[in-house]
Structure formats: structure tokens, C-alpha cells
Amino acid sequence: MNQSNCMVAQSGGPTAAINASLAGVISGIKKSGKYDTCYGAINGILGILNERYLNLSQMIPDEKNLNRLKVTPAMYLGSCRHKLPDYKDDDSAYVFIFNQFAKLNIKAFFYIGGNDSMDTVLKLSDYAAKIKSDIRIIGVPKTIDNDLCMIDHTPGFGSAAKYIASTMLEIAHDTFIYAVKSVTIVEIMGRDAGWLTAASALARNDYNTAPHFIYLPEVAFDKEQFLTDIRNKLKTLNNVIVAVSEGIRDKNGDYITASKAVADQFGHQQLSGAGKALEFLVKENIGVKVRSIEINVLQRCASHLASATDQSEAFALGEHAVLLAEEGVTASMVTLTRTSNTPYAVAYDHAPIRGIANEAKSIPREWINAHGNDIRQELYNYLYPLIQGEVSLTYQNGVPVYMPVPHLKPDHVS
């Protein structure tokens, strides 16, 4: 029999929901009946270049394993941050990849990832068009940064936002117990877009108004105005809590950091120390008790605080990607559109990858207050539905049980 198979891989930064999308792809393939075997490439596109594959049809054989995969954080298949060259400059990697597809009789390739991963989808799609390949290439979105275009919000963001909101509320409880003047600065991931930092506002309730200020990359940061904001708030409060994106910049576009930023191979600045820089600024100019907290990677894989909404949407996007491939769609990313906010509802579709790869979605300026130090109700209303619902986990010896990943060890033979 002439088998028709497919392949899936994951790339970029981890999230609490990216394996739900992988589970969705696997589920969609089983329902489809069109593909005999689903292969998983280990460590993204590098898995193909290094010929490292898993037979996911055998490894995830039943609902029990599929459900455990859904709640497992980070990438079950591993990840990479590998930038493919332009095939017009060097097509050797493309020739090898498509020879691998032919060898394994791959008819559909699903790549789960963020903006840089969609760049890979675009390049593979362009090369496929050039050689007139009939392989369907579909991007499945994820990123805690929520900065992909042509989609209302990205899987992984809702769970990270839930973690940020929960952590901010707990920081507030920790801080409020001391009857001394203090400033707490919480640095949150967000190089170019402040979606995650904005989600800290979801911690506010009938007794908690923290964070008292929110500073985002979408608005130029003014150090003097920041100090004025803090001094004024300290007149009425003992404890001031600030949420700040790691990527805040001044009016000249320079990052506010405590250390020099370096760039990765995609040209992204690897930032560190915005919170620490502001801590020093408060300490030197206001002289109250001050500390900075860098949440850093903790928000990415906190499956114990995952959003059920986020996980179910991630799974549905994976399943929908398979439907698109069956329909002959290629060079596209699967999308979701919010059709209603009250009650919250979404619809699934797709968009051409060319309008998505290497683009970034920022928070609309009108969703940020005039002073640039807080969000407006419109942004709160956008964020609120995304963190709803709790995910049920299985525990053993007091900790969650996830899918084991021995295949990601360097000495593992696949």
C-alpha cells in the first residue's frame, strides 16, 4: 500500500499549552484516517536536518496518553531556534528536508511555534512552491508574547497571563503585611509587546489595586515621570507595586536595562535587568525600601496554573490544522477569531503565512491610558476571558505527573 504520512515539530519558546496543540494534531490525524503514521521531528526543524524522529502514532496510542500530553508543559518534541537561510542563497538545507519528506512519504507538515517558527513555515512554503511540491505546510500558532498577527490571541498566552495575574496577587499579599514605605518592581517578559505585563492588571479585585502602575514597550518610558508617579503614589499608599515589561524603551528607542543586551540569530535583543535598573533608580532618588522581582521563565510552563480556555483552544487549533491540510490548504497558519466577548466565543480559520511571518502585533495605543502607566478597560475586557477555567492534573508524590521525555536527552537513540 502506498502510505501517506505526516510530520509535526515544535519550535521557539515553551508554553503551558503547546503540547495541547500537538495533542490536537495527533487527535486530528487519528480522526482523519488519511494518514498512516504521524512522525514527530525532535528539536524542531533541526530534527529533520539531523534525521531524528519519533513515531507519535505508536507513542501516543490512546486517550490516556493524549490527555496527559495535553497538560504537559513545554515541548514534548523539544525545540530549537534555528533560522533557515534564504533558499536563493543556499538551498542545501531545503533539498535535504524535502528529500526526507519524500523518504518518509510526508504529505503534510505541521510546525507549532511563534513568530520565528512562522518564518520557517514561510520559507518552506516558498521552496515547496518553487519545486511544485504537493506537501501541505501549515503553521500552528503559539507564543506567550501574544504578538502574532492575524489571530485574536495566541495559545500559551492565556496560561502565562493567568500565572502573571495569580503571582501578582500573591506578591501583593506578601507586600501589604509591612507597614513601611516600599516599592516592589515586577519585571515581566515582553521584548516588543506588553501583552503579558498588561495581564498583571487581572490581579486587581475589590481589595487589591496592585499593580499600581503598568509600563509597556508600546509607550516611551520616561525616568523622571516614573519617579514622579512613584512619589505621588507613596503619599497615599505604604506599598507601591509596579509591573514593567522587560522591553521598555526611552524616547530614543534605547532599552532600559541594567546590563548590555545581546542579539540571538533572529536579531532579537536578549534583555535582562529592566526591573533591576528601576530598582536602582528608586533607591538612588526616593530612598525607600525597594526590591525588584524578575519572573522570567517561570510564567512559560506553569501547567499547575494553566488556563482551561487556553488549553482547549490550543487543542482545537491543532485539530483544525489537520482539517486544513485535508482540504488542500498550504502556506498558511491556522487562526482563531473572537466572535463574541459576552459570552466569550471564537471561530477557527486560517490566514496566508506571508502576512504573518516576521510581523508583530502590539497593544493598540488606545488601550493604554494617556499617561502611559496603566491599561484601559478595553484591554482588561480583552484579557479577562483568556484566563478562565482550571486544568485538572494528576499528582504523584505531591507533584504533577507529565509525559516523560527521555528522547530529549543527548544520549537517546531515536
UniProtKB/TrEMBL annotation:
Residues that hold Mg(2+) according to the record: N115
Enzymatic reactions: beta-D-fructose 6-phosphate + diphosphate = beta-D-fructose 1,6-bisphosphate + phosphate + H(+)
Entry GO terms, CC: cytoplasm
Cofactor: Mg(2+)
GO process annotations (BP): fructose 6-phosphate metabolic process
Record-marked site positions (Important for catalytic activity and substrate specificity): D116
InterPro entries linked: ATP_PFK, PFKA, Phosphofructokinase_dom, PKF_sf, PPi-PFK
Listed transmembrane segments: none
Protein name: Pyrophosphate--fructose 6-phosphate 1-phosphotransferase
Organism: Roseburia faecis
